[in-house]
Design goal:
BlueCu_1_BS; Immunoglobulin-like; copper; alpha+beta; 23% helix
Length: 177
């Protein structure tokens, strides 16, 4: 009987081991940190901000702005440099717009109001599938500017692990036997 119980616990252990995986919570990123989504102090401000972050599937971009002064438009990477607004992927005119990153790869965002995009309200990000993904080779890591809010984002991801509860008890029982 003890052998049968031990065999069952071994099976439970390996099932638990197979189910064990790392889960990373989605992170809300306030675009531009404390500055928000507004005409920036420099034309590459948002690119520098984006280079400091690690974006993953499920994360959200929060664009804090006053409508109708600004908007947010996702465009193709080819359209971001020229501020081309003729074929947007999405447009959001709501203040505090929230965009969920649902696909990996390159995503580019601009403000389509007036000359805001050419004044620097634009940036491109790389969205990774998971924390283990390798960032794109062309991503640089400039120093973090003091007015950026680093209290949210890639530096503070919380990791959760299975097993717990019943699995934790089963593994503990197996080790004790």
């Amino acid at each position: 009987m003890a052998l049968l119980l031990r065999d069952m616990l071994i099976i439970i252990f390996f099932v638990a081991l197979g189910l064990m995986h790392e889960n990373v919570d989605a992170v809300p990123f306030t675009v531009g940190g404390n500055t928000g989504w507004t005409i920036p102090p420099s034309s590459n401000y948002y690119d520098k901000w984006a280079a400091q972050q690690i974006f993953q599937l499920g994360d959200t971009l929060v664009f804090k702005f006053t409508s109708p002064s600004h908007d947010v438009m996702e465009v193709s990477p080819a359209d971001v440099a020229s501020c081309n607004t003729s074929s947007p992927i999405l447009t959001n005119t709501s203040s505090n717009a929230v965009i969920t990153l649902e696909t990996s790869g390159t995503h580019s965002y601009i403000c389509s109001i007036g000359l805001h995009c050419s004044s620097g309200m634009r940036f491109t990000i790389e969205v990774q599938r998971s924390m283990d993904s390798t960032p794109a080779a062309n991503v640089t890591t400039p120093t973090l500017e003091p007015n950026w809010d680093s209290s949210s984002g890639s530096l503070f991801r919380i990791r959760h692990f299975l097993p717990s509860g019943v699995w934790g008890v089963a593994i503990t029982a197996w080790l004790v036997l």
